[in-house]
């Protein structure tokens, strides 16, 4: 299914390359309007190497068809916090905003160039204003048959990529880097978030950021993540899910394999809310395999009492069920931040986690913490590493 959808993207793109071509050059002022017109008018838009487009107005490129953005130079968002605070596009989901929405069918972005969010001014401002609304670098909105490849995305103020209501989307050979040049942290700079999206592949990429490497938010289905190298992040994360009353969240058919993680808060993670006033959902058929982790605070974690006090969780268990989850070949060195604990599978009471399988778990004991320990709660684990989790309270 995956190779076919990729071939479809490539073929439909080839069929339309013979439309108009536009080449953009820097004007000295806001290049946003010229970029927008070019994408409207031409099927092939080139941003030459050595061209740095100055984008000082929001980019609404929704509902376009058969477009190739050949990005050899740089698309740089002007670091004007006051302007973007009132002029970015907003989404109800987590009150997110974005510089750029790109959507429609048969879209290709490649060329070896860069998208630069000018993040430092945002990291600095956020350090003293926690309510500052920071824009996402690129949002694919209602986009179908998309390939984004060979692009360097740098210094996003907020998430790098938001795949919102997308279908058949591939990202490959992407370099993500957000590095703060001072002590102000690059918070919430997730690599990718998928939401209400089906058939998304993220592969062969290098991510150096300050939050989730990839997160599967509500209604992410048939997602494939492979060959990623994530540094300094919060890892590969399902959720958090089941937060909002009246909302039902589904995450189904996710495979994450061959992921290297260094200096991370989490490795492979699933988190769902519990408590008296939350939502519901289902997490089903999730596979994490071949993870190699260095200096990871929580190499393997299920938390079905996310942000919920244990006694409250016991009284109001999560209504987000977790089923058919397999962890295979997770290895590496925990940081010791959680003391001797190297893996934690904590479910709500009443058998709300089902068919949790752990195979070939090879986690070292953290330095100076004594032997490694494993935490489990309300879960029956199977697989050849099940014995690590044999002291659960199954209430
Ligand atoms: C980008 O464009 C804005 C708006 O015209 C302008 O204020 C700013 O100085 C430009 N930035 C650069 C680096 O040219
Ligand atoms: C983007 O432009 C389309 C028209 O092309 C409009 O319908 C849509 O509301 C705009 N989106 C936003 C978020 O402004
Ligand atoms: C979104 O903003 C509204 C109004 O400021 C606030 O009540 C709500 O809690 C916010 N939602 C999230 C998910 O942050
Ligand atoms: C903090 O950011 C918010 C949202 O962007 C803004 O409304 C507010 O004025 C900022 N506060 C300060 C002190 O700059
Ligand atoms: C991504 O990083 C690799 C390794 O540093 C480099 O070879 C490649 O050219 C980079 N790609 C882009 C698009 O910057
Ligand atoms: C990896 O992340 C760590 C911690 O955030 C940082 O100190 C280091 O410079 C990063 N390494 C690379 C190669 O970017
Ligand atoms: C997720 O999909 C289900 C149907 O499968 C729907 O009932 C639910 O409202 C969707 N939730 C979100 C957050 O879109
Ligand atoms: C589980 O999800 C994977 C994709 O991540 C898919 O290939 C597989 O068929 C699914 N299995 C079941 C039983 O649904
Ligand atoms: C998950 O994969 C299975 C097997 O391929 C498929 O039958 C099912 O429809 C998929 N679920 C979703 C939500 O796409
Ligand atoms: C564990 O398995 C036993 C025996 O099948 C069952 O009675 C119990 O409810 C299960 N506990 C959980 C938390 O799934
Ligand atoms: C399980 O509990 C027993 C008794 O408290 C203890 O001796 C044993 O070490 C525990 N096993 C694990 C894997 O934690």
Topology, please?
Elements (H helix, E strand, L loop, with lengths): L1 H15 L4 E3 L8 H10 L2 E4 L4 E4 L3 E13 L2 E4 L3 H7 L1 E2 L6 E2 L1 E11 L3 E3 L2 H10 L6 E2 L1 E17 L6 E4 L2 E11 L14 E4 L1 E12 L5 E3 L3 E12 L4 E6 L6 E26 L6 E27 L3 H6 L4 E15 L6 E6 L6 E11 L9 E5 L3 E2 L13
Parallel strand pairs: 1-2, 2-4, 3-5, 4-8, 5-9, 7-10, 8-11, 9-11, 11-12, 11-13, 12-14, 13-15, 14-16, 15-17, 16-18, 17-19, 18-19, 19-20, 20-21, 20-22, 21-23, 22-24, 23-25
Antiparallel strand pairs: 6-7
Bound molecules: 2-acetamido-2-deoxy-beta-D-glucopyranose (11 copies).
Helix fraction bin = 10-25%
Number of helices: 5
Bound molecules: 2-acetamido-2-deoxy-beta-D-glucopyranose
Domain count: 2
Radius of gyration: 21 Å
**Fraction in beta strands:** over 45%
CATH domain class name of the largest domain: Mainly Beta
How are the strands ordered across the major sheet?
11-12-14-16-18-19-17-15-13
Summed over residues and divided by their number, the pLDDT gives a mean of 94
> How many strands, which pairing sense, and closed or not: the largest β-sheet?
9 strands, parallel, barrel
CATH topology of the largest domain: Pectate Lyase C-like
- Overall geometry comes to elongated
CATH architecture of the largest domain: 3 Solenoid
Protein name: galacturonan 1,4-alpha-galacturonidase
Subcellular location: Secreted
Function: Specific in hydrolyzing the terminal glycosidic bond of polygalacturonic acid and oligogalacturonates.
EC number: 3.2.1.67
